[in-house]
Amino acid sequence: MKLEFNFNQSGVIPYRKTRVGLEVLLITSIKKKKWVIPKGFVEFNLSPFESAKKEAIEEAGAVGTNETIELGHFENKRSIGICHVKVFAMEVIEMLEDYPDKTRRQRKWFPLKEAAANVQTKQISEMILSLESNLKS
Description:
Blueprint: E1 6-18, E2 21-28, E3 35-36, E4 39-41, H1 48-60, E5 62-64, E6 70-78, E7 81-95, E8 107-111, H2 112-118, H3 122-136
Parallel strand pairs: 1-7
Antiparallel strand pairs: 1-2, 1-4, 2-3, 2-8, 5-7, 6-7
């Protein structure tokens, strides 16, 4: 019998408002170099959003506001067990030139539809596409 572990993760969809519409910041994963959002395990002393904000700084050099909405959640089956991932919207207010993962990842701003098309996870893609309507409500 194989033991399954449950883990809590959180991530953010970092966005900015431009004169042509919303843009989403994506980063590359370290191993496969696929476009992903900043996410990681929820740290025991932080809320899921605070933990995700910290990941955005470490992985993308993106500093965000403290206001957020939860866009949704999904489960990710991995070799270590099941990860329950909560995803939040985060408006970026500053981009750092120097951050921990700078040499390990690329970062790039995408228009909404292009960002949604570039991520592999269907649920994240749907959350990116729902961003505009979620921010208006």
